[in-house]
């Protein structure tokens, strides 16, 4: 893991001191809200529906036990004893007081964490595959690249006032678990003739105008990363629209100008910038890479795992659902579901955070990850430790065996917290999870991605859900639109809208009809919901969603 | 023709706490919608909004929110404003903690 240098620590301390002074000046009236707002946003502080909200970055989703403990301490000391993990590998505190925020930031700084550029029209938290460094399909760990980008983009003087926010994601695997095609820049580490480099994708994004990213360069040599990214962002900075907030993201810039024009301009700018990077960045990358060296994997018998697997059906179900193949045969990647049926997706109580931190220290080389799907991961676990981990998770309400299943729902905070939301998301997610748990159908249904957003900005990734749900305000009433066929992976696709929306009390029954239709239509249990949808298209699902239309047509 | 003016209150978020507040007739900021000044005259409402917005060291983002009167007591007409009187639906946090 990356260890902060003295430079990093000093920078953070100075930045926090600046923000502390800005807060004081706002409180004593020297700064107006219009002056203060961009300053607080650059430090991750929003004013939401019921309170302030502090968004803290967990760069590329990686943290250690001590950092997780501090997240728990902050939740207890300055918030209401929990935190909310987001779809961009951040944690949000929903109830801080303005005066306390500088102290919260100092506490984060003590363990090398911050809230810088988690908001505002800047380059945001750089995200990565949550299985980085552990995944069996990985070409190379994407986190050194992400850390280099974090350092380059933090306080980058040219990019503090971009036309709009700017999000970068990196994956080191052909299987995309970082939704790179829905980012402003998506980087995929690829191999060509024995050399690793990047496939560079730009102009993806969800929101009101969803777009799948387009390939700008199919192979960028590793050493060209920073000058090339700087060229992209600088072209966007000049060309991106500032006249209309809704047309300001790079996806619109690419759409309006065409990928070929953008490519020409980027290459032109790149040719100017390339000579200015004299290799210091590559030296830094080498130093960063050394800090991400894999842990020393333990060897030993995995018999304890096999015994528990055969003896305990609850453990077996959890192992079948929540474990992923590790690059080391004797190891597993453990996904901890923080989506127990009926709970708020992505919320973890401070006590749960401490349990996970302690498990990481005892059994998992002191590493934790946060996934964009709002779960927590222990990336390196020797299989012999799995039964003990499962028992401890169970005691903490963290052993739900639902990863990738219908109740593993992404949901944005929605109108329960967010000032931008047009409808609630959380209770819809809670009700869907509870309903299918009651029906005992979850494991029969198999892999299914439901993603819910409480407004058109799509923080809940509804466009790329197999079933996407978008909450809107229709004439003063909550209304939920369904999209089908979205895909967040390397075969990314935007879902298609099924038809008119559903009222708050109709949306869960509508999802239930969709799922029953799928169970009837699938060829066998191996065919996932998304496969059935791709094979048959919208029509049979639409007929189930809108039976009255079917009846009228008959 | 413009729509007839409907009753409103001035609402905002408190600068320090961030929570929802309403402007009372005696210029206090109250946490209770029931204590808010009901504005039934358009010109007076515009003035009171200016009064509220001028208190930049106390509140943030003052605006006029619609209310409906039942027995003289204001109730939100939109679900967003209803949530603001209460708090989130997943935990009993926010104003509903006091109830």
Could you characterize what this model shows?
The complex is a heterodimer of chains A (554) and B (99). Chain A is of the alpha+beta class and 554 residues long. Chain A has 19 helices and 21 strands. Chain A has 4 domains: 6-110, Alpha-Beta Plaits, CATH 3.30.70; 134-291, 2-Layer Sandwich (Sulfite Reductase Hemoprotein, domain 1), CATH 3.30.413.10; 303-395, Sulfite Reductase Hemoprotein, domain 2; 410-553, Sulfite Reductase Hemoprotein, domain 1. In chain A, strand 1 and strand 2 (52-57) form a beta hairpin. Chain A is globular. Chain A starts with 5 loop residues before the first helix and ends with a helix. In chain A, 53% of the residues are buried. The mean pLDDT of chain A is 97. By secondary structure, chain B is of the alpha+beta class. Chain B has helices spanning 42-53, 79-86; strands at 8-14, 20-23, 29-30, 59-70, 73-76. In chain B, strand 2 (20-23) and strand 3 (29-30) form a beta hairpin. Chain B is globular, with a radius of gyration of 13 Å. The N and C termini of chain B lie far apart (42 Å). The model of chain B has no long low-confidence stretch (mean pLDDT 95). Classes of the chains: A alpha+beta (554), B alpha+beta (99).
Note the main attributes of this structure.
heterodimer, A: 554 residues, alpha+beta, Alpha-Beta Plaits, Sulfite Reductase Hemoprotein, domain 1, Sulfite Reductase Hemoprotein, domain 2, 4 domains, six-stranded mixed sheet, five-stranded antiparallel sheet, 19 helices, B: 99 residues, globular
């Amino acid at each position: 893991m990356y260890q902060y240098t003295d430079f990093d620590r000093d920078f953070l301390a100075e930045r926090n001191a600046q923000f502390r002074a800005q807060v004081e000046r706002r409180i004593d009236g020297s700064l107006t809200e219009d002056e203060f707002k961009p300053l607080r946003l650059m430090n991750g502080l929003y004013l939401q529906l019921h309170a302030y909200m502090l968004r803290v970055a967990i760069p590329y989703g990686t943290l250690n036990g001590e950092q997780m403990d501090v997240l728990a301490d902050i939740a207890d000391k300055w918030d209401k004893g929990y935190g909310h993990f987001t779809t961009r590998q951040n944690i949000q505190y929903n109830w801080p007081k303005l005066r306390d925020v500088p102290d919260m930031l100092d506490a984060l700084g003590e363990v090398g964490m911050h809230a810088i550029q988690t908001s505002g029209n800047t380059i945001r938290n750089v995200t990565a595959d949550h299985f980085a460094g552990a995944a069996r399909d990985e070409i190379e760990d994407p986190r050194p690249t992400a850390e280099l980008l974090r350092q380059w983009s933090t306080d980058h003087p040219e990019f503090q006032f971009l036309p709009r926010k700017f999000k970068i994601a990196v994956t080191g695997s052909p299987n995309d678990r970082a939704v790179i095609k829905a980012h402003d820049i998506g980087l995929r580490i690829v191999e060509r003739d024995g050399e690793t480099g990047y496939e560079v994708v730009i102009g993806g994004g969800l929101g009101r105008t969803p777009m799948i990213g387009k390939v700008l360069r199919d192979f960028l040599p590793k050493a060209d990363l920073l000058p090339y990214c700087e060229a992209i962002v600088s072209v966007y900075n000049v060309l991106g629209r500032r006249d209309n907030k809704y047309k300001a993201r790079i996806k619109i810039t690419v759409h309006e100008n065409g990928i070929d024009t953008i490519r020409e301009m980027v290459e032109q700018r790149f040719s100017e910038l390339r000579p200015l990077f004299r290799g210091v960045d590559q030296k830094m990358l080498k130093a960063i890479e050394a800090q991400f060296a894999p842990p020393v994997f333990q060897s030993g018998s995995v018999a304890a795992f096999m015994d528990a697997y055969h003896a305990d059906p609850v453990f077996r179900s959890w192992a079948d659902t929540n474990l992923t193949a590790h690059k080391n045969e004797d190891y597993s990647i453990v996904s901890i579901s923080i989506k127990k049926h009926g709970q708020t997706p992505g919320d973890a109580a401070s006590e749960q955070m401490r349990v996970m931190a302690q498990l990481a220290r005892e059994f998992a080389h002191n590493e934790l990850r946060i996934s964009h799907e709002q779960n927590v991961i222990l990336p390196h676990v020797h299989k012999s430790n799995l039964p003990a981990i499962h028992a401890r998770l169970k005691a903490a309400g963290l052993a739900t065996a639902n990863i990738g299943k219908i109740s593993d729902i992404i949901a944005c905070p929605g109108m329960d917290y967010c000032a931008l939301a047009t409808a609630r998301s959380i209770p819809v997610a809670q009700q869907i999870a509870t309903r299918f748990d009651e029906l005992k159908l979850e494991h029969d249904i198999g892999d299914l991605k439901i993603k819910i957003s409480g407004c058109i900005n799509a923080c809940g990734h509804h466009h790329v859900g197999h079933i996407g749900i978008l909450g809107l305000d229709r004439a003063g009433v909550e209304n939920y639109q369904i999209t089908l066929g979205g895909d967040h992976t390397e075969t990314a696709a935007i879902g298609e809208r099924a038809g008119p929306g559903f009222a708050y009390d109709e949306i869960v029954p509508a999802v239930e009809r969709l799922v029953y239709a799928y169970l009837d239509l699938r060829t066998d249990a191996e065919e996932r919901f998304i496969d059935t949808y791709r094979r048959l298209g919208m029509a049979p699902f639409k007929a189930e969603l809108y039976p009255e239309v079917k009846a009228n047509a008959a | 023709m413009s729509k007839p003016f409907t009753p409103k209150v001035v609402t905002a978020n408190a600068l320090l706490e961030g929570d929802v507040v309403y402007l009372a007739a005696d210029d206090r900021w109250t946490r209770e919608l029931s204590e808010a000044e009901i504005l039934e005259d358009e010109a007076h409402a515009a003035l009171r909004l200016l009064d509220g917005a001028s208190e930049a060291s106390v509140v943030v983002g003052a605006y006029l929110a619609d209310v409906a009167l039942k027995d003289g007591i204001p109730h939100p007409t939109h679900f967003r404003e209803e949530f603001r009187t209460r708090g989130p639906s997943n935990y009993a946090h926010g104003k509903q903690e006091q109830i």
